[in-house]
Amino acid sequence: MTIVTIAHLSDLHFGGYADLKQMEALEEFLPTLNLTALVVSGDLSQRARHGEFQAAHVFLHRMRMKMPAIVVPGNHDIEWWKSPLGLLGEKRKYAKYLRYYSELRPVLEAPGMIAAGALSSYGFSLGSLTWNVRDIAVKGHLPRSETKRIKKIFDEAAPGLAKIMVVHHNVLEGGTGRMGLARWQSAHKRLLDTGADVILCGHDHYEGAGQIEGGLAVSTSGTHSYRQRGGRPSVFNLVTLDAQSVHIQHFRWVSADRQFIASDKFSFARRGAPKVAVSVAGGDQGL
Ligand SMILES: [Fe+2]
Ligand SMILES: [Fe+2]
């Protein structure tokens, strides 16, 4: 199979907190990595302002001249206060984002891969509510309709393609000890069923590489803003898929040198196609 190499960025947060030195370094560095695609897993802006979206748009436009890219919205990118609990309709929350980025649920095909974005950012909504008051409008959720839609896309994809799912909220407990998704146990079961080879997420502002139930690889990318957690340097992830494995390598920002350097690398077995019953003379023999 084609080896697929993806730069996975997240939480650019254009606005007061974006580290422009990092953005400039990324513009120079990413095109040297021979990438199949670029993934940005949400929180392009800080407060869903026009200028913030425009700055992110310019960055992505420059990148798209060098490689295909896919972007999903984060909780900071939606104007949830324009329709709390969705009472004034769903469209109002996403109108400004959609002015600059045409899709909430994008799909990207590139050589050897298909990437599908799932929407987890709904703001102050019933599905994202928890008992923690700090979670209001921050927590995300993955409705059943979203995982079902992603599964259909992957089921219908050409055989042999690497299947990449992109979602904003961290699906594993991150370095901060917090889950990005409300009702994550249900989400985990459904994520395992989508057929994805790897999930790319962010939101935690703390890099991570792990698996759901020891089977499905998860890349959590950091932030390129000044809002890193745990006093850690910023990180983006390089995700590589070959026939057997998913590799997730962290690239750490060294501010004194104004460059990203290769750091820890984690490798996981790819899940592979599900085993199917083999038909032989005399009847099916279940495996
Ligand atoms: Fe963020
Ligand atoms: Fe976020």
Report a brief summary of the structure.
With 287 residues, the chain is an alpha/beta fold. It contains five helices and 14 strands.
Number of helices: 5
Q: What would the principal axes of the Cα set say about the shape?
A: globular
Ends distance: 26 Å
Radius of gyration: 19 Å
Q: Structural class per helix/strand content? A: alpha/beta
Number of distinct beta strands: 14
> Order of SSEs, N→C?
EHEHEHEEHEHEEEEEEEE
With strands numbered from the N-terminus, the spatial order across the biggest sheet is 3-2-1-10-11-12
**Helix fraction bin:** 10-25%
| Biggest β-sheet description | 6 strands, mixed
Any low-confidence stretches, pLDDT <50, length ≥5? Answer: 275-287
**Proportion of strand residues:** 25-35%
Cofactors and ligands present?
Answer: fe (ii) ion
Mean pLDDT: 90
Task: Explain what the structure shows.
Helix content is 20%, strand content 26%. A 6-stranded mixed beta sheet has the order 3-2-1-10-11-12. It has 5 helices and 14 strands. It is α/β, with parallel strands linked by helices and 287 residues long. The protein has helices at residues 20-29, 50-64, 91-100, 144-156, 184-192, and strands at residues 4-9, 37-40, 69-71, 107-110, 113-117, 162-166, 198-201, 208-212, 216-220, 235-241, 245-254, 259-269, 278-280, 283-285. Residues 275-287 have low confidence and may be disordered. The structure holds fe (ii) ion (2 copies).
